[in-house]
Design goal:
The protein has 223 residues and is an alpha/beta fold. The chain contains six helices and 15 strands. The chain has helices spanning 3-13, 30-41, 54-62, 100-109, 140-149, 183-191; strands at residues 23-26, 48-51, 76-81, 85-86, 92-93, 110-118, 131-135, 153-156, 158-159, 162-163, 171-176, 196-199, 201-202, 209-214, 217-222. Strand 14 (209-214) and strand 15 (217-222) form a beta hairpin. It is globular. The protein binds ribulose-5-phosphate. Ribulose-5-phosphate binds next to helix 2 and helix 4.
Amino acid sequence: MTQDELKQAVARAALNYVVDGAIIGVGTGSTANFFIDELGKIKQRIKGAVASSEATAARLKSHGIAVFDLNEITHMPVYIDGADEIDASGAMIKGGGGALTREKIVASVAEKFICIADGSKLVEVMGTFPLPVEVIPMAQAVVSRALKAMGATPILRLKEGVPYVTDNGCFIIDAAGLRITQPAILEQQINDLPGVVTNGLFARKGANVCLLGMADGVKTMTF
Ligand code: 5RP
Protein backbone atom coordinates (compact mmCIF):
# COMPACT_ATOMS: atom_id res chain seq x y z
CA MET A 1 0.00 0.00 0.00
CA THR A 2 1.20 3.51 -0.74
CA GLN A 3 1.39 6.17 1.97
CA ASP A 4 -1.64 7.86 0.42
CA GLU A 5 -3.61 4.59 0.53
CA LEU A 6 -2.72 4.24 4.23
CA LYS A 7 -3.89 7.81 4.84
CA GLN A 8 -7.11 7.11 2.96
CA ALA A 9 -7.73 3.97 5.04
CA VAL A 10 -7.42 5.84 8.35
CA ALA A 11 -9.54 8.69 7.01
CA ARG A 12 -12.30 6.19 6.24
CA ALA A 13 -11.91 4.51 9.65
CA ALA A 14 -12.27 7.89 11.36
CA LEU A 15 -15.87 8.12 10.15
CA ASN A 16 -16.71 5.66 12.94
CA TYR A 17 -15.93 8.45 15.42
CA VAL A 18 -18.22 11.03 13.82
CA VAL A 19 -21.14 11.79 16.12
CA ASP A 20 -24.51 12.16 14.36
CA GLY A 21 -25.95 15.67 14.48
CA ALA A 22 -22.77 17.15 15.95
CA ILE A 23 -20.27 19.78 14.92
CA ILE A 24 -16.91 18.18 14.29
CA GLY A 25 -13.46 19.74 14.55
CA VAL A 26 -11.36 19.16 11.44
CA GLY A 27 -7.58 19.37 11.11
CA THR A 28 -5.24 20.35 8.33
CA GLY A 29 -2.90 18.47 6.00
CA SER A 30 -3.00 15.65 3.48
CA THR A 31 -4.50 13.06 5.87
CA ALA A 32 -7.10 15.56 7.06
CA ASN A 33 -7.90 16.28 3.40
CA PHE A 34 -8.65 12.60 2.80
CA PHE A 35 -10.88 12.72 5.88
CA ILE A 36 -12.74 15.80 4.59
CA ASP A 37 -13.39 13.98 1.32
CA GLU A 38 -14.86 11.03 3.28
CA LEU A 39 -16.87 13.40 5.48
CA GLY A 40 -18.37 14.94 2.35
CA LYS A 41 -19.97 11.56 1.59
CA ILE A 42 -21.86 11.49 4.92
CA LYS A 43 -22.36 15.23 5.37
CA GLN A 44 -26.10 14.83 5.94
CA ARG A 45 -25.28 13.07 9.23
CA ILE A 46 -23.51 16.09 10.78
CA LYS A 47 -24.52 19.64 11.61
CA GLY A 48 -21.24 21.02 10.32
CA ALA A 49 -17.57 21.52 11.14
CA VAL A 50 -15.05 23.91 12.64
CA ALA A 51 -11.92 24.27 10.51
CA SER A 52 -8.36 24.52 11.80
CA SER A 53 -7.15 26.53 8.79
CA GLU A 54 -8.33 28.57 5.84
CA ALA A 55 -7.35 25.67 3.54
CA THR A 56 -9.50 23.22 5.50
CA ALA A 57 -12.43 25.66 5.57
CA ALA A 58 -12.24 25.97 1.78
CA ARG A 59 -12.16 22.19 1.30
CA LEU A 60 -15.07 21.63 3.70
CA LYS A 61 -17.12 24.27 1.88
CA SER A 62 -16.27 22.72 -1.49
CA HIS A 63 -18.05 19.59 -0.22
CA GLY A 64 -21.07 21.60 0.90
CA ILE A 65 -20.26 21.13 4.61
CA ALA A 66 -21.31 24.07 6.82
CA VAL A 67 -18.29 25.72 8.48
CA PHE A 68 -18.88 27.28 11.90
CA ASP A 69 -16.86 29.94 13.72
CA LEU A 70 -15.36 28.44 16.87
CA ASN A 71 -16.82 31.33 18.87
CA GLU A 72 -20.31 30.01 18.11
CA ILE A 73 -19.54 26.55 19.51
CA THR A 74 -19.83 25.29 23.08
CA HIS A 75 -19.84 21.55 22.43
CA MET A 76 -17.63 19.53 20.13
CA PRO A 77 -17.43 15.77 20.72
CA VAL A 78 -14.50 15.06 18.42
CA TYR A 79 -11.58 16.72 16.67
CA ILE A 80 -9.95 14.68 13.87
CA ASP A 81 -6.50 15.54 12.53
CA GLY A 82 -3.19 14.11 11.35
CA ALA A 83 0.22 14.35 13.01
CA ASP A 84 3.86 14.60 12.01
CA GLU A 85 4.97 12.31 14.84
CA ILE A 86 3.12 10.48 17.62
CA ASP A 87 4.62 8.53 20.51
CA ALA A 88 3.31 5.61 22.57
CA SER A 89 1.71 8.00 25.10
CA GLY A 90 -0.35 9.84 22.47
CA ALA A 91 1.86 12.96 22.53
CA MET A 92 2.31 14.44 19.06
CA ILE A 93 4.32 16.87 16.99
CA LYS A 94 2.05 18.82 14.66
CA GLY A 95 2.42 21.87 12.44
CA GLY A 96 4.16 20.50 9.40
CA GLY A 97 1.38 22.21 7.44
CA GLY A 98 1.72 25.40 9.48
CA ALA A 99 -1.70 25.26 11.15
CA LEU A 100 -0.53 24.29 14.65
CA THR A 101 -2.04 27.22 16.57
CA ARG A 102 -5.56 26.95 15.17
CA GLU A 103 -5.31 23.17 15.45
CA LYS A 104 -4.46 23.46 19.14
CA ILE A 105 -7.26 25.97 19.74
CA VAL A 106 -9.94 23.87 18.01
CA ALA A 107 -8.67 20.65 19.62
CA SER A 108 -8.86 22.29 23.06
CA VAL A 109 -12.64 22.56 22.72
CA ALA A 110 -13.15 18.93 21.69
CA GLU A 111 -13.87 16.13 24.11
CA LYS A 112 -11.72 13.69 22.12
CA PHE A 113 -8.76 14.09 19.76
CA ILE A 114 -8.73 11.37 17.11
CA CYS A 115 -5.34 11.26 15.42
CA ILE A 116 -5.23 9.75 11.93
CA ALA A 117 -1.82 8.88 10.56
CA ASP A 118 0.09 6.44 8.43
CA GLY A 119 2.30 4.02 10.36
CA SER A 120 5.50 5.98 9.66
CA LYS A 121 4.37 8.67 12.12
CA LEU A 122 4.66 6.41 15.19
CA VAL A 123 8.04 7.00 16.87
CA GLU A 124 9.74 5.98 20.08
CA VAL A 125 11.17 9.43 20.83
CA MET A 126 9.90 12.55 19.05
CA GLY A 127 12.16 15.14 17.49
CA THR A 128 13.35 13.67 14.20
CA PHE A 129 10.63 15.83 12.65
CA PRO A 130 11.66 19.45 13.40
CA LEU A 131 9.34 20.99 16.00
CA PRO A 132 7.31 23.90 14.52
CA VAL A 133 7.14 27.00 16.73
CA GLU A 134 4.81 29.84 15.66
CA VAL A 135 6.16 33.27 16.61
CA ILE A 136 5.18 36.92 16.41
CA PRO A 137 7.47 38.16 13.59
CA MET A 138 9.39 40.68 15.78
CA ALA A 139 10.32 37.84 18.17
CA GLN A 140 11.85 35.60 15.52
CA ALA A 141 15.49 36.29 16.45
CA VAL A 142 15.08 36.23 20.22
CA VAL A 143 13.04 33.00 20.13
CA SER A 144 15.59 31.43 17.75
CA ARG A 145 18.38 32.21 20.25
CA ALA A 146 16.34 30.69 23.09
CA LEU A 147 15.64 27.53 21.06
CA LYS A 148 19.34 27.26 20.30
CA ALA A 149 20.09 27.47 24.03
CA MET A 150 17.67 24.54 24.47
CA GLY A 151 19.77 22.46 22.08
CA ALA A 152 17.80 22.95 18.86
CA THR A 153 18.88 24.17 15.46
CA PRO A 154 16.28 26.85 14.65
CA ILE A 155 15.36 27.29 11.00
CA LEU A 156 12.98 30.03 9.88
CA ARG A 157 10.38 28.41 7.60
CA LEU A 158 10.45 29.92 4.11
CA LYS A 159 8.06 29.79 1.17
CA GLU A 160 9.36 30.85 -2.22
CA GLY A 161 12.36 32.50 -0.57
CA VAL A 162 10.48 34.66 1.93
CA PRO A 163 9.24 33.83 5.45
CA TYR A 164 6.21 31.57 5.46
CA VAL A 165 3.25 33.46 6.97
CA THR A 166 0.60 31.54 8.90
CA ASP A 167 -3.17 32.13 8.80
CA ASN A 168 -2.54 34.26 11.91
CA GLY A 169 0.03 36.53 10.23
CA CYS A 170 2.93 34.97 12.14
CA PHE A 171 6.20 33.18 11.27
CA ILE A 172 7.25 29.59 11.97
CA ILE A 173 10.61 28.52 13.31
CA ASP A 174 11.30 24.81 12.81
CA ALA A 175 13.39 23.58 15.74
CA ALA A 176 15.50 20.71 14.41
CA GLY A 177 17.74 18.28 16.26
CA LEU A 178 15.77 17.91 19.47
CA ARG A 179 15.40 14.59 21.24
CA ILE A 180 12.09 15.10 23.05
CA THR A 181 12.01 12.80 26.05
CA GLN A 182 9.71 14.98 28.18
CA PRO A 183 7.26 16.47 25.68
CA ALA A 184 4.80 18.02 28.16
CA ILE A 185 7.61 19.89 29.94
CA LEU A 186 9.18 21.10 26.69
CA GLU A 187 5.76 22.19 25.38
CA GLN A 188 5.33 24.42 28.43
CA GLN A 189 8.92 25.75 28.37
CA ILE A 190 8.73 26.84 24.74
CA ASN A 191 5.26 28.33 25.15
CA ASP A 192 6.59 30.41 28.05
CA LEU A 193 9.06 32.23 25.77
CA PRO A 194 7.83 35.78 25.06
CA GLY A 195 6.82 36.03 21.41
CA VAL A 196 5.86 32.39 21.00
CA VAL A 197 2.23 31.96 19.95
CA THR A 198 2.36 28.22 20.46
CA ASN A 199 4.51 25.25 19.53
CA GLY A 200 3.62 22.05 17.73
CA LEU A 201 3.88 19.76 20.75
CA PHE A 202 0.49 18.36 21.66
CA ALA A 203 1.51 16.59 24.84
CA ARG A 204 -0.27 18.26 27.76
CA LYS A 205 -3.43 17.46 25.80
CA GLY A 206 -2.51 14.73 23.34
CA ALA A 207 -4.51 12.26 21.30
CA ASN A 208 -7.20 10.14 22.92
CA VAL A 209 -7.24 7.70 20.03
CA CYS A 210 -4.81 7.13 17.17
CA LEU A 211 -5.87 5.31 14.02
CA LEU A 212 -2.62 4.16 12.49
CA GLY A 213 -2.51 2.95 8.90
CA MET A 214 -0.40 -0.21 8.57
CA ALA A 215 0.13 -2.59 5.66
CA ASP A 216 -2.12 -5.18 7.37
CA GLY A 217 -4.91 -2.77 8.29
CA VAL A 218 -5.83 0.10 10.58
CA LYS A 219 -4.47 -0.27 14.10
CA THR A 220 -6.35 1.53 16.92
CA MET A 221 -4.33 2.90 19.83
CA THR A 222 -6.15 4.42 22.81
CA PHE A 223 -4.52 6.61 25.43
C1 5RP B 1 -0.68 20.60 9.86
C2 5RP B 1 -0.48 19.38 10.67
C3 5RP B 1 -0.69 18.06 9.99
O1 5RP B 1 -1.63 17.34 10.70
C4 5RP B 1 0.61 17.32 9.96
O2 5RP B 1 1.58 18.13 9.33
C5 5RP B 1 0.46 15.99 9.20
O3 5RP B 1 0.25 16.25 7.86
P1 5RP B 1 -0.01 15.11 6.80
O4 5RP B 1 -1.36 14.54 7.11
O5 5RP B 1 0.00 15.85 5.48
O6 5RP B 1 1.09 14.10 6.90
O7 5RP B 1 -0.16 19.41 11.82
O8 5RP B 1 -0.34 21.75 10.57
